[in-house]
Amino acid sequence: MAQYAWVIAVMPVLAFLIILFTLRRIKEKAAYVAIAATGAGLLLSLGVLATVWGGRIFTYQTTWLTAGKLTLKIGMYIDPLAAVMLVVVTTVSLLVQIYSIGYMKGEKRLSWYYAAVSLFTASMLSLVIANNFLQLYISWELVGLCSYLLIGFWYEKKSASSAAMKAFIITRIGDVGFFLGLALLFVNTHTFDFSAVRQIVAAGSLGAGTLTAIALLFFAGAAGKSAQFPLHVWLPDAMEGPTPVSALIHAATMVAAGVYLVARSFFIFEAAHPAALQVVAGIGAFTAILAAVIAVTMTDIKKVLAYSTISQLGFMMAALGVGGYTAAIFHLTTHAFFKALLFLGAGSVIHGAGTQNIYEMGGLLKKMKVTGWTFLIATLSIAGIVPLSGFWSKDEILTEAAKSGNYIILGVLLVTAFLTAFYMFRLYFVVFTGPVRDEHAHESPAVMTYPLLILAVPAALLGLAGSPLLGNWFTKFIALPGAEHIAAAPDYLMMGLSTAAALAGIGFSYVLYGRRAVTAWSVVNSLSSFSWLNTTFVDKTIRDGLRVTLGISNGLARFDTRFVDGIVNGVGGVIGTFSRYFSRANSGFIQRYAMRFVIAFMLLAVAVYFVLVR
Amino acid sequence: MSGQLLAFWALSFVILSGALYIVMTKNIMHAVFMHLLTMSMIAAVYGLLHADFMAAMQVLIYAGAVTAMVVFALMLTKSQSRPDGAGIAVDNQQRGASFLTAAGFLAVVIYVLVPQKWAVHEAAPVVKSDVAAMGAIIFKSYILPFEVISVILLAALIGVIVLARKED
Amino acid sequence: MVPLQYYIIMSAILFTIGIYGVLARRNAILVLLSVEIMFNAVNINFMAFSAYITPATMVGQIYTIFAVASGAAEIGIGLAIILLIYRGRETVNVDEVNMLKW
Amino acid sequence: MAIALPFLIALALVIFVLSNIVFFMWAEFKISGRVADRFGPMETGRWHGWAQPLADILKFLNKEDIIPANADKLIFRVAPFVGFIPVVMVLAAIPYTNKIFVRDFDIAVFFVIALSSFTFVSMVMGGWASGNKYSLLGAFRAAGMLLSYELPLGLAIAGVVMLSATLSLIGIVQQQTVWNIVLQPIGFLVFMVAMQAELQRSPFDLAVAESELVAGYSVEYSGMRYAMFQLGEFFGLWALASMAVLLFLGGWHGPYLPGIVWFFIKFYGIFLFLAFSRVSVPRVRPDQLMDLGWKILLPSALVNIVITATLIVLVPHYQVPLAVSEFVILIAALYLMRRVLK
After folding, report:
1. Where are the extended beta strands (E) located within chain D?
2. Residues of B with Cβ-Cβ distance to D165 under 8 angstroms
3. What's the longest Cα–Cα distance across chain B?
4. How distant, in Å, are the alpha carbons of A368, B161, C35, D228 from that of B152?
5. What is the DSSP letter of A130?
6. Is residue A229 classed as helix, strand or coil in its secondary structure?
7. Residue B69 and residue C95: Cβ atoms within 8 Å?
8. What residue of B is the nearest CA neighbor of C76?
9. pLDDT score recorded for residue B83
10. In the beta sheet, which residues pair with residue A501?
11. Contact (CB<8Å) D128/B59
């Protein structure tokens, strides 16, 4: 089964091509093509997951191109991690595509939307099954491109096109790091293949310094893609894209690619200097708390969720940083579902209420039953309430943090957990409870609510798979090969702490927003300085940095135009002058050609006669 | 000097002067008819080579077909508006260069060809061409080229019709 | 008996005259006639070689048949093209039909 | 003397043919007269105007040879000879019996076809060189017509050649134990129609149609040169009628009488047919002419060839099946044509 995993990635490509070549004619039917491709991909993914059930690993590869001694291969590396990611990506993608039928109804570029989503799905799947870093990098850039295309889907809007460019450029900053890391890796190992690199790293022939540099450069790429401080600023702006796209790309899948990259190359981080992982943990934790604080101040429903996403990605990075590989992946998986659910629910709300400002909503639970209840499930899940999946994965991370003995990180993460519960319930209370502010709000069509219901199931229950009370099954399943498995006993202290933080956050939120006992503004205003730090300081720094880069680029460009182009133009000019002279010979006067032909034939005959015959 | 040689000299004289007339004259219609005369004399040369069939074929094609086509083309394109053909420049500006080129070509060819020794067959050139034998050769050894040439002629026929008909 | 060389030289001269005509004539129909002269010079050569060197197999004669047939096809197509050019450009002068350049 | 003999034979032949042509002319005068309910020439030479053609020839010889001022003089002068000489040359290829012939060409049939295409050239030369629009029009009518009808003529002959497997006219006659008209009635009909067109005789005389083009390509000609055009036509008639006899009617074959007599009986039969069809069928229009040539005669000739070739290859004794199938097809085609024309 696993050897056909490439089919999963190829089918969306086919869908993309079909839609692309029939762009004008296919119209709404594009949705069915894309959904069919992704649905088939989901079934295959489940099959692949079943194949790798026992923890088996499959690799397939074939030569892509050969240049001199260099042979580049493409292939698949199907391990439990890849299989899980396949299922996550195809499931979320499928549900988002179905949901989009309702959400994007009447859109005039609908077929293009589905083409881009299909291309994105294909790229993401290819990223997941890649067996070497080069293929991963190509897919990485492809998903970046799709992200750009979809953020700027409504490119008539200035804000959308600027947001698309911002996303592209800022992730590009990280990608430069990733690329340099790749180059460094290849120079030292002469291979891109995961297994080969793993063996070389295990053999210890690479210096710790080199490995640390590679690890940090990779992390730069991951930070760009996964919106880690200070490269997180693009993600809130990316909310200009259609909401289903936000759910798919900017919540569930693509932004997780950074986490995936770090997880895939975790053996490099482990072999590197411990500082590398500490940087990951530090930046992750800082991002988590910073984004959580900013989320509290946001009034746009999608922005709240965007910062929440950044915060949760910080959680995952922090987990990786403290060595919680499986915890990070577990959280990635659960987060993919409940955050997708949240975004789709937000989309449903926006669809029904016609606004994104949470203070223009209110009491929507009465109007939108399905959306409201599923949203509540997801909110409880992300807040970390006991049997729901968010609880188990967050608890896992906290346990790992505690186990690593890094109590600063643990503290920060606990505060973040409290803030998470607070801002999520703030959102929930403002939007779904209280007085009805918009009488025209209505429930979304079934094509949108059913994906919500379906997503609610994993959002609520998936965590049980990794529950230490139920035997830590998920952890065992995706644990790194060779790494001895730590039988994590249930850490009741951590469970208690995290539950306490979550309940405190919910309670605080209930007081402020549910009952409105205290004026919310005083609290929120006191937090808005963090927002300033974010919007003004980081953006400005990045802008200045870009300006410096631009200056260097301009200098180089001037060198290029003056000197390099001067040479090229000079050569071209000389040739051009000769050509102009010679092209006069091509007068269009055919008998002149004939005469030249006769003369040339004569000379040739004479030459042949004297050389060969004589 | 045998009768054959005499005939050869006479025919060569007519052919070469006819050809020269074709490439020199200002009167295109004269050139066309002189062309027919030249071709007929070439047919006579074929007769001298005992190839009666080819001689008849040459006459048939040039008298029956080519001259007709050329005359029709002349009439359809106002190449020759008056019978005396005056007032139309029929040579281009590279006349002198062409003459030199042709002369050089002739020099090269003569220089190369004249000293050659040819393996002349002992029965030659008095063997009479047998039409039946020739037919047998064409339809046995050369059947493929024969069919190909028939396809080429068909293609040319269709092509000429497509090209020359007025679109309406 | 006429030596073979005589035929060869006669056809060479005829061919040269044809070349001159092709190069120097302005009227496309005259150019075509000159091409025909060249064709026939070649055919004379074939016929002479056939008669003198391979009288039994008649290779040259058969080749001449094919050459004459393709020559007929060529002049038909050539005249049709001249006719088309005349319709489009009101001229059959080769040096005035010089749009295809540079 | 040995050298002089061929010339004497040639002279005798030409004189013989010429005297026959004189008779043709007189016979045509008389037949067209009788058909038109006239007597035709009655005065010259007392007995039924027998000397009228001779008088005409004398008149032509005596007339002034006018060359128009606008004419291309060289071609104007040459044109009648270009038409006349090849037709006279054709006489050399025609045998009268297996004993009486000038020369037995092994490509005689081909020779005849090739030389008769010069007729067209002389017409174009004369018509163009006259510098007269009627003569030019006439010349091109003649040219188009000759080119159109040479094809069915040649193909009809090709059918006969396929039967006899030789191009020699003597050989073809010797092959004909059964006359080819029986074996190939379609070919014979095509040949007869195409022959009249080739000869520019009414009903296919529209190239020299007096009422439309004055006299076509020969409008500016007078005297001897005009006579040569006319004479050329008669020589052509002689040649093609002989061809019809040789190819389709078994040549000199016939019971009891000597071969030469049989030949001329058949020959004059053909001549009578031509003379009567000339006065009894109205002239066709140019478009009808082209339709007839390309849409009826050419396909018929091809059908003839295809049937002949198929039967020769497939059936060992092909004579009876060939004759039967050709007759069936011919009658069916004529019946269908009558239905369509109604």
Report:
1. none
2. 132
3. 63
4. 79, 14, 19, 41
5. B
6. coil
7. no
8. B160
9. 47
10. none
11. no
CA–CA distance, A56 with D288 (Å, rounded to integer):
90
Best of A587, A589, A590, A595 to substitute, by most chain B Cβ atoms within 10 angstroms, is A595
ipTM for the complex shown: 0.78
Contact exists between B and C (3 or more beta carbon pairs < 8 Å): yes
Within 8 A of C31 by CB-CB distance, chain A residues are 591
Instruction: Give me the count of residues in chain C.
Output: 102
Residues 6+ apart with CB under 8 A from A262: A218, A219, A222, A269, A280, A317, A320, A328
Q: What's the pLDDT at A534?
A: 59
**Which residues in chain A touch residue B105, judged by CB atoms under 8 angstroms apart?**
598, 602
Chain length of chain A: 614
Subunits adjacent to chain D (3 or more Cβ pairs under 8 Å) = B
- C24 in A contact zone (CB under 8 Å): yes
The nearest CA of chain C is from the CA of B137 a distance in Å of 8
C95: closest CA of chain A, how far (Å): 5
Number of H helices, E strands in chain B: 7, 0
Q: Is D35 on the interface with B (CB under 8 A)?
A: no
Regarding the domain delimited by C4-89, which CATH topology (the fold level of the hierarchy) does it fall under?
Answer: Helix Hairpins (1.10.287)
Burial class for D146, CB neighbours closer than 10 Å (0-12, 13-18, 19+): buried
Reported for D317-321, long-range contacts at CB under 8 A and 24+ positions apart, including other chains, are D319/D178, D319/D183
Q: Say how far apart CA D100 and CA A362 lie, in whole Å.
A: 127
Going from the C-alpha of D201 to that of each of A501, D112, D117, D167, D274, the distances in angstroms are 122, 19, 16, 27, 8
Assess contact for D219 and D132: CB atoms under 8 A: yes
Q: Which chain D residues are Cβ-neighbours of B59 within 8 angstroms? A: 114-115, 117-118
Question: Residue A605: which of B97, B101, B108 has the nearest Cβ?
Answer: B108
pTM greater than 0.80 (yes/no):
no
Contact B2, B29 (CB under 8 A): no
Q: Which pLDDT score is estimated for A578? A: 86
Cβ-based contacts of D147 with chain B (< 8 Å): 64-65, 68
CATH topology for the B1-77 domain:
Four Helix Bundle (Hemerythrin (Met), subunit A) (1.20.120)
Number of CB pairs, chain A paired with chain C, less than 8 A apart: 28
Cβ–Cβ < 8 Å for D100, B46: no
Residues A336, A455: contact at Cβ < 8 Å? no
Domain map (residue ranges) of chain D: 1-62, 67-341
| Total residue length of chain B | 168
CA–centroid distance for D244 within its chain? 9
Structure tokens at A280: 């990951």
- Chain segment D170-202, per-residue pLDDT in tens: 888 888 888 888 888 888 888 988 888 888 777
Structure confidence at residue A94 as a pLDDT band (50, 70, 90) = confident
**Contact residues for B6 (Cβ-Cβ < 8 A; gap 6+):** none
A135-A140-A145 Cα angle (round to 5):
125
- Chain A residue closest in CA terms to C16: A598
> How close are the terminal C-alpha atoms of chain A, in Å?
73
Tokens of C28: 């496309």
Gyration radius of chain C over CA positions? 17
Q: Where are the domains of chain B?
A: 1-77, 130-168
- A586/C102 CB distance under 8 A: yes
CA atoms within 13 A on the CB side of D215: 10
Q: What is the pLDDT of residue C41?
A: 92
Name A303's Cβ contacts closer than 8 Å, sequence gap at least 6. A236, A239, A295
Out of B19, B72, B110, name the one closest to residue C37 (CB).
B19
Mean pLDDT computed over every residue of chain B: 81
The residue of chain A with its CA nearest to that of B106 is A602
Q: Measure CA of the first residue to CA of the last residue in chain C; give whole Å.
A: 54
